[in-house]
Write a structure and sequence with these properties.
Blueprint: E1 2-10, E2 13-19, E3 24-29, H1 35-45, E4 61-69, H2 74-82, E5 90-98, E6 103-107, E7 110-112, H3 114-122, E8 125-128, H4 142-149, H5 153-200, H6 206-218, H7 220-236, H8 241-258, H9 263-289, H10 294-313, H11 318-336, H12 338-384, E9 391-397, E10 400-401, E11 411-414, E12 417-420, E13 428-434, E14 442-443, H13 444-447, H14 450-464, E15 472-475, H15 484-497, E16 502-506, H16 510-513, E17 518-527, E18 535-542, H17 545-557, H18 563-573
Parallel strand pairs: 3-16, 3-17, 8-15, 15-16
Antiparallel strand pairs: 1-2, 1-4, 4-5, 5-6, 6-7, 9-13, 10-12, 11-12, 13-14, 17-18
Helix pairs in contact: 5-11, 5-12, 6-10, 7-9, 8-9, 12-14, 14-15, 17-18
Length: about 575
């Protein structure tokens, strides 16, 4: 439900705010007062096109903000969540148009694109009149209306679940088939690379070990020479470190016998002698262990050359080479088992396609029956709403494909034909109409005038009242070309429909205005100045019961309201 709308600096409107109620909301006013300006402003918050010309002269920007109660609009909440917008029970939709041509769209103070605003608006309001926002003129909505009328939503959901699985399986099969072709082309290369890597069989950390061993082998003579030299210096040569420390330890021991202060020094010297002794033994063992091995040296050099060659080809490191080997190993294994995987997935797709075809055929058959009933109901409603001699036909078509077509999950066998599928089955639905006797029926969007579209939609909405998803219906030209009994029928139809939807209607007819739950009047004032330069301003106000009687009387008898006119207005409205 539209709770309120605030408009600032829009055309003739300087600033106004309207609080709406539910039920049937009527807007009246003199021709040119600005009734349609208010509806046009509302169109901005549901995504209709805007021009800088709507910005009031002298203002920087025009602002329109609508507050909607969306507590029961589950489809809208789901759509908002899909687009990362907080779904609240009250939705604030704001549109700003600057005099420089820029525009801003906001939902709950979060900036959004105009496209997203338009899609949101389509789930909030259905606007009928000289506007593009008429769901009836969008053929993609016709199938939804037909399904709502026939209460086929459950069957549609059942089909769509199978259809979605078919699409997913078909995409998987298509991707697998593409990968099969690609992998089979690469299988020979993968096999070569696997053999090349496996022939070397690199191991993690191997390079560091080889480098360390190479360093020793390449410096073996120097290492032995240095170790032997150190061993002689420390232990074997005349005046070696071991001999000197041994003599020093002996003398310190003698001194310690005389003065205990030398005890610690004697112990440390003895320890140093032991350390030198151990170091000499290590050098002797090391010299004996180092062997100059030209064959081993060459073997390691060849090994490191192979590892370097692999690294250059497969990622720059041994780890990258091993990761590549693991990856192509899996790809090669997958390529070898592709035939079995494709056969399994193909059988799954065929089964899902057959299930889709069966459900689509059942759904299409039910739609044919529902369409005949809908056509009769629409014609009866149209006759009551003043469109006599009309013809109305819900046409259901299917797109037949060549028998050899595959179409990646977009087709299924239905009966003896292969039909293109869509999320709602195999049907394309469009309403056709002729509003004049003897004329051929044509698509609804191409033949109906604004007033007729409004009454046709009123007829549809009256039939679909309980199941329809849009909470707000706005009728701008519904009384075009009607009067008398037909006007009364239109009013009663709107009144009945307002039990299920909030109805906002602009009208000139007392038969419609008299049935209002809330009545607003639009007025234009001119701020005249002595030397010119005055400005016109449009305003709107809600009428009290007595004011409503007076306004309905004006609609019945003109500007001069008589007691008789007031009496007739009260009788029409059912008030005392």
């Amino acid at each position: 439900m539209l709770k309120s709308i605030t408009i600032k600096n829009y055309a003739l409107i300087e600033e106004l705010s309207i609080q709406f109620s539910g039920g049937l909301v009527i807007i009246t006013g003199e021709t040119g007062a600005g009734k349609s300006i208010i509806i046009d402003a509302l169109g901005l918050v549901i995504g209709e096109r805007a021009s800088t010309e709507v910005v009031r002269s002298g203002a920087e920007k025009a602002i329109v903000e609508g507050a909607f109660d969306t507590a029961r609009n589950r489809k809208l909440h789901a759509f908002l969540r899909e687009n990362d917008i907080e779904a609240t029970d009250e939705l604030l939709v704001r549109r700003e148009i600057s005099a420089k041509g820029t525009t801003r769209c906001l939902i709950n103070d979060s900036a959004i694109t105009l496209g997203l605003l338009k899609k949101t608006g389509e789930l909030l309001v259905d606007l009928h009149g000289q506007h593009e926002h008429q769901s009836l003129l969008r053929t993609d909505t016709h199938i939804e209306m037909l399904d709502e009328f026939g209460a086929l939503e459950h069957q549609v959901e059942e089909f769509h679940a199978v259809y979605r699985r078919l699409r997913e399986s078909s995409v998987q099969l298509h991707e697998l088939q593409q990968r099969e072709a690609q992998l089979k082309e690469k299988l020979e290369l993968f096999s070569f690379q696997i053999k090349e890597i496996d022939a070397v069989a690199p191991q993690p950390g191997e390079e560091d070990q080889i480098e360390a061993e190479l360093k020793i082998l390449e410096n073996a003579e120097m290492l032995v020479s240095k170790a032997n030299g150190l061993h002689g210096f420390l232990y074997e040569s005349e005046n070696s470190a071991h001999d000197l420390l041994s003599r020093a330890a002996k003398q310190l021991a003698e001194l310690a016998q005389i003065d205990k202060q030398f005890d610690e020094a004697a112990a440390e010297c003895k320890s140093a002698e032991t350390i030198v002794n151990e170091l000499a033994k290590f050098l002797q063992r090391y010299s004996g262990s180092v062997e100059f091995n030209p064959e081993r040296l060459e073997e390691l050099r060849q090994r490191i050359a192979k590892l370097i060659a692999l690294k250059k080809k497969y990622g720059g490191t041994i780890e990258a080479t091993l990761a590549h080997r693991e990856k192509i190993g899996k790809e090669a294994e997958l390529a070898e088992h592709f035939d079995a995987n494709i056969r399994k997935l193909t059988a799954q797709v065929d089964a899902q396609r057959a299930a889709c075809g069966k459900l689509a055929q059942q759904l299409s058959s039910k739609r044919q029956d529902v369409a005949r009933k809908l056509d009769k109901e629409i014609l009866r409603e149209l006759a009551q709403l003043g469109i006599q001699n009309a013809q109305f036909s819900t046409q259901i078509r299917q797109h037949v494909l060549p028998s050899h077509s595959n179409a990646d999950g977009e087709c299924a066998p239905v009966g003896k034909q292969l039909l293109r599928l869509n999320p709602g089955g195999c049907d394309e639905v469009e309403f056709f109409i002729s509003t004049n006797l003897g004329e051929e029926m044509k698509p609804l969007a191409k033949v109906a005038s604004g007033g007729e579209v409004s009454r046709i939609m009123l007829a549809l909405k009256s039939i679909l009242a309980k199941s329809d998803r849009l909470p707000v219906l706005i009728f701008d030209e519904i009384d075009t070309g009607v009067s008398g009994r037909v006007a009364q029928a239109v009013g009663l139809s709107l009144k009945a429909l307002s039990e299920f939807h909030q109805i906002i209607a602009i009208t000139h007819l007392p038969q419609i205005a008299g049935l209002a739950d809330a009545h607003f009047v639009v007025e234009k004032f001119e701020d005249k100045k002595p030397r010119g330069g005055g400005r016109a301003t449009t305003s709107i106000r809600k009428l009290s019961t007595e004011e409503r009687v007076h306004e309905v009387a004006k609609l019945m008898s003109g500007e001069e309201v008589t007691e008789a006119g007031l009496k007739n207005a009260r009788e029409l409205m059912g008030v005392k």
